Amino acid sequence: MKKxxxxxxxxxxxxxxxxxxxxxxxxxxxxxxxxxxxxxLRTFTILYFTGLRLNELQQMRLSxxxxxxxxxxxxxxxxxxxxxxxxxxxxxxxxxxxxLFTIDNTTDLDARVITKGSVKFGRTxxxxxxxxxxxxxxxxxxxxxxxxxxxxxxxxxxEMGSKQINTKIISKFIGHSDVKTTMRYIxxxxxxxxxxxxx
Length: 199
Prior knowledge:
Elements: H1 16-27, H2 34-50, H3 54-57, H4 62-71, E1 73-78, E2 83-88, H5 91-100, E3 115-116, E4 124-125, H6 128-143, H7 150-162, H8 167-174, H9 179-185, H10 190-196
Antiparallel strand pairs: 1-2, 3-4
GO molecular function: DNA binding
Organism: Candidatus Sulfurimonas baltica
Family: Belongs to the 'phage' integrase family.
């Protein structure tokens, strides 16, 4: 019996338009619980500006957010590579995270950025597999097939590559130990392909 080959789908990148679409859709979704909506908005924003992986995002604490807002940078321990990654926040990123976080003298800075439960009953970290499924499912329902949380990482690397930023800088920014890994992420957009047409 002949095996049918599965179609290798195009892995899409998140651009500014897709990011805005995701944010607007989540903000306008009245069916989402408050904590879920907050988690998705925080996730999409942080992934868009940093290119973090979801497991790395789940390591983030409110202390990291405070440092990003006040100092423009923060160090995060990466569980996958057991190394540090420095995160940076420009003006636009700061502007967006200020909208999503309230940090004052009463804030528990050791609290996680992504949580489950309510404020009233206490919040705890959310299961990694459940979180991945939730994020990817929401992205697919809004943007369609080909989009996952990794699309943010790919989109950021591709955009940096299209701006002729040195690959070593991109690699360091994104937290890759090998430049070859970074190169695999740089995928031309549809616009790049259209602009490359000579006939």
